[in-house]
Amino acid sequence: MNKIIPFIFACLLLQSFTAQSEEFDPYTLPAEHYNDASIKDKAEFSDKKGNQFRIKNSKYSRGLYIRHDKKWKKHGIFYSLSSGRVTSQTTYHYGEKNGPHLSFHSNGKVSFQYNYFEGKKHGQWYQYRDNGSLVEEKEYKNGLKDGPRTSYFSRKDGQTGPIQFTSTNVNGKTHGEKLQYNEDGKIVARSQYNMGKKIGKTQWSH
User: What 3-state class would DSSP assign to 17?
Assistant: First the structure.
């Protein structure tokens, strides 16, 4: 019986997500795929290339492990769940976070969006309100905040509001000028930073 379940699972994967002539891709499996009653937690199967996979399908987590260097490692999209709802999804490559990450509000809209490269946050990072409007955006390089950082006012119509704060990060620390704006776009405050340390007092405009 244990051999039959993995065989069925492998067939379902190939038939549902790829053409018969193509290879199974663990990076494209949606969370809903694991709702199938035949997809059992800890069941194992092999793809056409001979890669061995183990299923994770519990009330809190869904995804696949691949056998690599004699160890089971997360591979492809892994989903975290709470009360049957997907709260986040993270992409893995042979046990290491590598690729897109998404977190979700209770209404299903994205709350955080960013990428990993070789286990570290890298590239653009976004935070959203539950109405879909943008709260903040910044950049990461090799796991450290590095580059422009901008936050936005909230608007009742669900659109991203005017800029509220701007600053720059260097190697994980605020560096240079930090500006605060009012909703009309006027600068109301200026602060100076040197590698995370504030220099002097905030200058307010009246």
Answer: helix
